[in-house]
């Protein structure tokens, strides 16, 4: 695509890459956005990308190890996301990896971009099953309703979840939206040019495609 921007989907051996890439392609097409979606495990590709997406399915520790096993990838993420301010989207475990650490099957370091810890989801109602699977309402925080990526969820839109752990943020300002499953928990987190969703936008039908399209148009500024 001549003149197209490039969105990188990082392949670190953690599932759902095809569905995430296909959803991004569809979101771009429906929104008329000229971007090329590239799935790669090449850290050098991030230097030429306009946006970066980190999906993820599985255990926190396994995903963290898989990401660190890619030569130069952590440095490339720090350079492009933290230093250069390129828009970044983490999905499910990709979002959880933004935290300081996760405690699934032991303690494992995350990227440390969002201060906090990923802990087991503990509904107050013992009748609620874990993992939390299915549709739930996403409720944006009042201060985040004007965020360019979150705005499509105003009014309480449903999204699709599959997870057993949730992030606990050290700073409430990093929580952009919540859901309730026997208690409130963060489902969209972010700061600066970074945003992450606990739910799967690629499985969340029109609302998810809207979010992905908004991300592909986002310049990385929070409001």
Can you describe what's shown?
The protein has 223 residues and is α/β, with parallel strands linked by helices. It has a single domain, classed as 3-Layer(aba) Sandwich (Rossmann fold), CATH 3.40.50.880. It contains 5 helices and 13 strands. A hairpin with a 5-residue loop joins β5 and β6. The protein is globular. The two termini are 30 Å apart. The mean pLDDT is 93.
List keywords for this structure.
223 residues; alpha/beta; Rossmann fold; 9-stranded mixed sheet; 4-stranded mixed sheet; 5 helices; 13 strands; 32% strand
Question: In a few lines, what is going on in this structure?
Answer:
This protein is an alpha/beta fold and 223 residues long.
Instruction: Supply the CATH class.
Output: Alpha Beta
Number of strands: 13
At CATH level 2, the architecture is 3-Layer(aba) Sandwich
Structural domain tally: 1
Task: Explain the layout of strands and helices.
Elements lengths: L4 E6 L6 H15 L3 E6 L10 E4 L5 H9 L4 H11 L4 E4 L1 H4 L2 E4 L5 E2 L4 E7 L11 E9 L16 E7 L1 E5 L5 E6 L3 E8 L2 E4 L7 H13 L6
């Amino acid at each position: 695509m001549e003149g197209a921007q490039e969105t990188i989907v990082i392949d670190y051996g953690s599932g759902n890459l095809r569905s995430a890439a296909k959803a991004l392609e569809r979101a771009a097409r429906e929104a008329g956005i000229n971007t090329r979606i590239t799935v790669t495990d090449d850290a050098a590709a991030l230097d030429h990308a306009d946006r970066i997406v980190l999906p993820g399915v599985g255990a926190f520790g396994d995903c963290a190890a898989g990401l660190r096993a890619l030569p130069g990838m952590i440095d490339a993420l720090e350079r492009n996301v933290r230093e250069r301010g390129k828009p970044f989207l983490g999905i499910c475990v990709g979002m959880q990896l933004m935290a300081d650490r996760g405690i699934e099957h032991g303690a494992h370091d995350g990227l440390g971009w969002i201060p906090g810890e990923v802990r087991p989801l503990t509904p107050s109602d013992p009748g609620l099953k874990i993992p939390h699977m299915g549709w739930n309402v996403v409720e944006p925080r009042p201060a985040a309703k004007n965020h360019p990526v979150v705005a499509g969820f105003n009014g309480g839109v449903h999204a699709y979840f599959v997870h057993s752990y949730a992030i606990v943020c050290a700073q409430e300002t990093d929580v952009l939206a919540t859901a309730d499953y026997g208690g409130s928990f963060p489902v969209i987190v972010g700061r600066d040019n970074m945003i992450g969703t606990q739910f799967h936008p690629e499985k969340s039908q029109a609302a998810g495609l809207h979010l992905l399209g908004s991300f592909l148009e986002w310049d990385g500024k929070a409001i």
